Amino acid sequence: MSTLSLLLSGSKSESNRALLLQALFPDMTIGNLAIADDTRIFQKALLNMSPLFDVHHAGTAMRFLTAYFATQRGVDLTLLGSERMCERPIGVLVEALRALGADITYTQNEGYPPLRIRGRALKGSQVSLRGDVSSQYASALLLIAPSLPKGLTLNLTGEITSLPYLQMTVRFLQYMLGENVAQFVDEHTIIVKPCDELLHDHWQVESDWSSASYWYSCVALSQVGTQLKLSHFKQDSLQGDSALQQLYLPLGVRTIFQGTTLVIEKVSTPTTAHYTAHLNNTPDIAQTIAVTCLGLGIGATLTGLHTLKIKETDRLQALKNEMEKLGAAVTITEDSLELAAGAQLGSGVSISTYNDHRMAMAFAPLLLKTDFEIADKEVVSKSYPNFWDDFAEVMEFCK
């Protein structure tokens, strides 16, 4: 059996966590850092000496930097972003930081960037935060917590969205600083103790599971027997999107580990005529799964998607708009997407990407089934700059 091998860049989520901790502990080193725009912007911001910094579309950078700069005495700067970034709420995080003693003001609209941040020593040690908006708010607080004089007790209220990303943050801190430094007390309470030295001084970033999702989709849309190999991955991954291994089984794709190489193979046609999944823990792969189901001609019910409305675009509305161009019948609510089975794929249309990297990459695998254009293709650089080079290889291999 012929096999194509791809080497994927480091995880953006892991890389940005590692960069923030490295800013607090300069002796720390990082391997396999992501080459994504978001990570490069974040890295540049940490070295920024000017009173103004533009994060563009980098949502993780906006959240993590807000927390980091709030703790840096003597800092006085304004964080701004793209037009869409200034429509994405950040009030939940700002209020939590203010409760700890931060000096942050909104320079335009209350609750939204741009933000003016005057760094100071934060004296608070306990804060409550809504858990149903974005896990990045909580992770931002947890990552600065070791530098706080009394550490931090974080209480999360309501349903917790993207729990694996919080677990990633806690497990990362445990590895770098010690098991006793960061702990879940229960499912809604996390304690991080103050810490001034590293337990380990190096973090090797795993390749990005979110990026792997597009290759799962390509395999699912290919003939039985198609196999791709992806490097470098861990069986005990910190990344929530490693759930792809289970989520793509009903779509006929099996996953096997060979050391740090991920082998994904199309072993059957879909085992269900209507795919269902609750994606509250893995919202970043919802677009990929929806488009895969469209390409396979099966129906789908995807739930737990309420955070998609405040991403780079309103991803639920964007999915509906663009899937319908290709002949799909799609119904959306505030937190779900329903795809009717049996769509006859159209062709010759232009798929809009809405400045959203995941829209471009999620729709790309459908090019194995029909012809269409993807507008603003270079938006993929936000997370996967060499995506189209890899995709050209996969297209030639899978067709």
From TrEMBL:
Pfam family, one: EPSP_synthase
InterPro entries recorded: Enolpyruvate_Tfrase_dom (IPR001986), Enolpyruvate_Tfrase_sf (IPR036968), EPSP_synthase (IPR006264), EPSP_synthase_CS (IPR023193), RNA3'P_cycl/enolpyr_Trfase_a/b (IPR013792)
EC number: 2.5.1.19
Parts forming coiled coils: 309-336
Catalytic activity of the protein: 3-phosphoshikimate + phosphoenolpyruvate = 5-O-(1-carboxyvinyl)-3-phosphoshikimate + phosphate
Residues in Enolpyruvate transferase domain copies: 54-390
Assigned protein family: Belongs to the EPSP synthase family.
Name of the protein this chain belongs to: 3-phosphoshikimate 1-carboxyvinyltransferase
